């Protein structure tokens, strides 16, 4: 009953996508009884298609598996997909066999028993084949509940022209202390080293940065959740550093990510760098065209000199829905897309890979390919994928997301933005944020400890 309560809470106040939920699997949720025939099935797959590659991937899979057909329903966005899945699970029918989810939402569906534990099909043996960051995000109770499609290691992108004007060598920024010293010099020129506004769009970079700092702002242990937003050692490290940037006017606190003003300031050099996912190059190329040739990418600054700790910002994955009656065939499809030939097709159409054999391949970092040449020209001739590939293979600590991640993102913008507007300190804002998260967890039936 508790799991039902959580599913219903997750779907409250969200419209049902009736047309999508009208097709898919039935209501029998017994996983062992629903494995079906691994070689013969009609699969329903929900997801989005940002690289316009699904038609080719499905055709390749069906050719290799003639007894299986895949019907793809383009659900448009990650939010719409998770909403529709929540509704279908709550209703007990209409769910797909395979679903694409943003990495942070996988835990939400795993903890409410909506997804299949993929170790039943040997997925737990694939850990070493994927970059550690995306793989670690998809574990619940030590079991994989999805396979990663892509990777989003947090990177340090900087505008070399602005840095040169300030007398800063971007490649020499190895630690966050170096970053702070650079921020002061860049501010003296009239630019900001970056922007931080604390909106809901900043939530994913926030989780990536506290992750890299070694923080555990929340822990999920079955029905128990511990919220520790300010007393955790890693959180204290992060709070002290960011508060210093705010107090000394070293970051633009008025411009939110992904706004028109953000693109304008990236394009005119007012914002001189970003710590953001490895998927950012194409967004800089389209959003800041006047800075072609000026941007560079480097590894994320470290909290301790000599370390090589990374974190993930974004990412998506494929899971098998527990209501599916074709689970064995569904797993075969997601393995093909993430670990087999389909993974290469996705990489060839612009998806930043999570599979090590692609990240380490000569073709991925070859500067003479048409796609790489275009990107490298924008980045002043730098071999961008070579830097990104190295980042994706750096070690990461394990990090959990809350089983009500969409709420956590919205509440982050509501509460934490107040620190960036100067109304309260970042520590106070995060304390208030922690209270909101604890209240939400209790409402969903968890036993919550707030520290």
UniProtKB/TrEMBL annotation:
<dbReference type="InterPro" id="IPR006059">
    <property type="entry name" value="SBP"/>
</dbReference>
<protein>
    <submittedName>
        <fullName>ABC transporter substrate-binding protein</fullName>
    </submittedName>
</protein>
<feature type="signal peptide">
    <location>
        <begin position="1"/>
        <end position="21"/>
    </location>
</feature>
<keyword id="KW-0732">Signal</keyword>
<dbReference type="Pfam" id="PF01547">
    <property type="entry name" value="SBP_bac_1"/>
</dbReference>
<dbReference type="InterPro" id="IPR050490">
    <property type="entry name" value="Bact_solute-bd_prot1"/>
</dbReference>
